[in-house]
# Entry
Amino acid sequence: MGDGTEKIQKKFREGGNMPEELTQSKIEQLNKMPIVESFVTKSDDGKWVIHKTTITSIKSINYYKKMLEGGWQNEDSRRVK
# Structure
């Protein structure tokens, strides 16, 4: 399929949380979700544990263009451009 489907299916099979085959609608839903990666390492001097979490969210350029063109309102209801 080439759209990341194999990687998603493999990840869930290894975790044992999903059946062998995912439906197309489930794959589309998972592809829209942010990718969360967690890494735990030890510091060079061995005194600290470093836990790093990376959240990757992919959005189309059009999504951001619409936000920037139309502006958006923050909590104080002020127009931001």
